[in-house]
Amino acid sequence: MTDLSKRDTRGPSERTNHRLLVMSGALGGLIGFTMVIVPLLHLPPGTKPGPFDMLTAPLPLWFAILVALLWGVFLPIISFRWHRVVDEHESRAYRDGALAGYYVVGLGAPVWWFLWRGGVLPALQAEWMYLAMMATCGIVWMWRKYA
Q1: What is the tens place of the pLDDT at every residue in 2-29?
Q2: Could you tell me which residues come within 8 angstroms of residue 8 by beta carbon, excluding any fewer than 6 positions away?
Q3: d(C-alpha 86, C-alpha 109), whole Å
Q4: DSSP codes, 79-111
Q5: 118 three-class SS
Q6: pTM over 0.85
Q7: How big is the CA angle at 53 (ends 52 and 54), to the nearest 5 degrees?
């Protein structure tokens, strides 16, 4: 007799969904971890690392190509597969998060640009806009999915 409390009651698409999310998170975590370590290892001797070196320090060519391939080839493959197995509820949560992220960039970038031209802010920083967009997408997705 099987113990039903230990049986996986998720369907195949939900298991695939979770597996793809774990793969994406693991790949993102690996990229994030190496984006901190590799630039620090390639700083000139005697240079003290700054707080934003992981965003601005030059990367070795081999590493830049490797990360670009991982980000530009493997993540889209995982994402495409995820979109095929996700249920309607999570799809709507994802869509709402993406739309909110679009508005962060679509409204935030011009506001920042106008204020830069007026001398109030420094030049537009793509890294900060990207981080704001991704944070917004993730927060709205989690709120819509789990709330």
Answers
A1: 565 566 667 777 888 889 889 988 998 9
A2: 15
A3: 31
A4: HHHHHHH--HHHHHHHHHHHHHHHHHHHHHHHH
A5: coil
A6: no
A7: 90
